[in-house]
Amino acid sequence: MMAELRNCPRCGRLFAYQGRNLCKRCQEEDENEYLLVRRYVRDNPGATIFEVSEATGVEEEKILQYLREGRLQSKGLVAALECERCGRKITAGRYCPQCLKELESQIKSVVKDSGVKKPEIKTDSKERMFTKDSYLKRE
What's the predicted TM-score (pTM) here? Predict the structure, then answer.
C-alpha cells in the first residue's frame, strides 16, 4: 500500500500522510509549542490565554486548539472554552459532560432503531484466518 502524498498546510513541503495533516518537522514544532504551553500553565495557574500566548509566543488560536483537542485542560487557565452545543463553560474538548451524555443517548437510540445488529461470531466454524505464509504452506 502506497502512502498518500500531501503538501503540509503550514510550510508547503510534500510529505507522506500518516493521519496528521502536518509534515514531520511541523509536527515536532507543534509538539514543542504544546510542551512549552503546558509547562507555562502548570507553573502559572490562573493565567489567561492571552498571558500564556504573550509569555510563550504561541498563538492564542493554537492554545484554544490544544484545549479543544483535550491535550490541555483549562483548569490552570481562566475558562475560555464554551460547549459548542449549549454554551456552558468547559475545561477541555468541544462539549460539556451533559451534552456528551445527551448526544451519546441520541446516537444509541438511532443505532438501536435502525435495526443494525451486531454480527454473530461463530466459534465452531471451520473458517479461520491465516497469514499468507501459513495459508500457502497448507496447500
Answer: 0.58
